[in-house]
Amino acid sequence: MSQRMSAFSFFVGAKSDALPKGPGRKKWFRQAGPISLAFLGAAALLSFGANLWVPQDPTYQDLLYRLVPPFEIGEGVSYLLGTDQLGRDVFSRLVHGGKVSFAVGLATATLAMLIGGFLGLIAAYFRGWQEAVILRVVDIQTAFPFLIVAIAIVSIVGAGVNTIIFTLVIWLWTPFARLAHAKSLSVKESEFYRAAISSGRSGFGLVFQHIVPNITGAMMVVWTFVVAQTIIAESSMSYLGLGVPLSTPTWGSMLSEGRNYLETAWWIATFPAVAIMLTVLCVNVFGDWLSDRLDPQTKEI
Amino acid sequence: MLRVLGSRALQLILVVLGISTLLFFLVRVSGDPALAVAGSEATTEDIEIIRESLGLNRSIFEQYFAFLIKLATLNFGDSYIYLQPSMPLILEALPSTLYLSFVAFALAMLVAIPAGIFAAVKRRNASGRFILSMSMLGQSIPPFIIGIFMILVFSVWLQWLPSFGNEQPTSIIMPAIALSAVLMARHTRLVRAYFIEEMNRGYVRTGKSLGFNNRRIRFKHILRNISVPMLSLIGIDLGKFVGGAVIIEAVFAWPGIGSLMVNAVKARDYPMLEAGVFTVAVMVVLVNLIVDLLYQFVDPRLRAKVN
Amino acid sequence: MNLAEQKVDTVVSIKNLDVVFNTASGPLQAIHTTNWSVAPGETFVILGESGAGKSVSVHAVSGLLPSTARITGSIEFEGNEILGADQESLRKLRAEKIGVIFQDPLTSLDPCFKVGAQIAEIFQVHRGMSKDEAWNQAVSLLDSVQIPDPERRANQFPHQLSGGQRQRVMIAMAIALEPKLLIADEPTTALDASVQVAVLELIQRLRDQRDMAVVLITHNIGVAAAIADRIAIMYAGRIVETGTAQEVLRSPKHPYTQALLSSMPRIGASKAELLTTISGTPPSLATIPSGCAFHPRCTRAIEKCKTDVPRLEPTKQSVNHIFSCHNPAEGA
To answer: Does any CB of chain B come closer than 8 Å to the CB of residue A273?
Structure first.
């Protein structure tokens, strides 16, 4: 075992024996993965279709109904989760806010997987200086605090969904690159790969036919954990005002507004906080479930 | 040992230089800092004057040369917001950030190591599994949300602790807990996993065959052995910790460099930002240097190679 | 010879030993009604392929089986039953009276401590010595296992020693408290052939000097031939043949022993070489064949072998040479 752990195990924070396995594990726990996925799917669908069903325009301000507590029926208007300091409906904002979280999470993780996976394959395929450069960059990035980089990039490029995705992708490609590199190297050691080479095959056809299928399972597992990381990072950036413009509701910016009203209106911050927690927890539970099935060894890298 | 030190020092210079240079060019490419300084109501002449005073009318290479001199002398210019040299402002806020980071880190380790060992030893019991589940939950909650919930409970509801600033001795409690939570959860899992791995090692079996009791095997031998991989992880984590500190400082209005930098972004206060990024880069590389040196000390296999 | 005398003559004696592992997929029996004993100054070798249960039976004595193991039968140590004795006194007894050497000396030593400190720790814990006293004792012990320049070696870490030196350190640790029984679990398997001989000679010399009983586990017939006074052949959790080294090696009775020996016995023979002469592979614990476990690979198998487990019975020539076969070759 190498003494220094890879970015991946660092990232996932899990190693072998992470959860009790086998018959000792409760039945409901084995179903936790699919249940989480169903919950996430429903939440994402409801968010993306928010325009079709939520009771209010999330940006509509009604100063007559400022800071209405949740579960109270007003005169002719009902605010399920209350209203914020500008009289906007917290429930509608919460549903709309999910759009940014889910969109950024899915887009970032997918882009990062493609880019990181590609660079990892290059490193493993060519070895040589390509490998040295790529792994060195991965090492340096791993040790550097993400939010500082995000601050620097946002200060230069300006806030927005694209900036967030760009920032997160140039940050989160590293675990994919390291995983793709490590896995491809072990595939290259294998008998069937050598057999393919000795039969005269070479080049990228070989890579796509033999290496790519062998690393997709592990990459999918990392992908889910990166989605969770991305959702946390996006909400952190939005909280700091480094995210999308304030006109678009996001869970992070709702939290940041609610922070100033904690004393008088707990609900503004609490509901988006619960939304973030539940979403991240579900993604992590699903990822864990997935890794048990697709790639039991990845956790040990 | 000297060679490691030398190569690390070189790396420090390269990383800091690289990051600073990147930042410098991106800032110049992305728009005119003078506009940001002047604000929306400035006239064309005002902007021209500001541009001249900031040296922005010179060629980019002259500017870069001037920037390198600034870097070497640690003088990044006056902050646009505070109208004072930015580096001293950062350095003034640095102890506050280090204080928060250190307390949070110590707290995380003080909890994670015993909890991880307990969860490893009792891994088949309900208590061990409970700790494992808690640590998984802890990793799913972003630190700033923990901060907000703690404010709700301990400041608003129970009114025990101050919700912002660093005026009272108790002010550190909530920011430190919020900042340490993720690390605590992660390292509990890691200590547990490493510990379980080590429990199957040959030297543990040897210790048993020699009639050593469990306490000796666990706390003298296994703990000593897991300190090797733990240390390298701690090196990576300490760097990330600074990033986590930024947002916790924002939540608790903690007067550190994180708060300064977040405000600097919003005001496009580049001198402040450059000084901040520079300081963080130096700190990250320094921490890694220290960890690397400790690593040589902790792992006899490496120590032998170096000497 | 009466019974009382015999007890004094035996360091350890196991009778009707059964070991069952509780696994997720149900209980697995690793050892079936096994008997053996060993006397002071005697070397008893248990020979068999991997998975035959060699290690399990001796580690039932050393106490190093995992907690999932259920041990039944009897284990007498110097005449006292130790199965079911309380854990604390058992731990003390094993520390003082039983020394263990393992296959891989590199992983068996703690990589983070100097070898001198690891030996000294034994004296500090069990003899209450001061750090300096224990260290000096450790250095002289290293000298007695023939490590040259012991002062310098004591200050080194395990990875700085050669494989043979590490195994000598392991032996030093095992004999530090002058045990009555030395268990050597494949002590030479991880070593170069040239070093194997030296380590075996060291074990033999220490046995003679200290009048220890030695139980050595190996899959290597050459090792067994080099060191054994008595040999037991194990197959699928049972002893199938046992006797003096000469009896078992010169006139093997069990078809399995005969097949084993027909491979060229020499020190350093690999497992693969051993297996080439016997068709088929040894059974796993989960799929032990009925009757005589060896029957699917046996050239002399008859109907009865598939259903009845053969009993261990003495040969015509010697009451101590015992084997279990329904259909032994002529002359048995």
So the answer is: yes
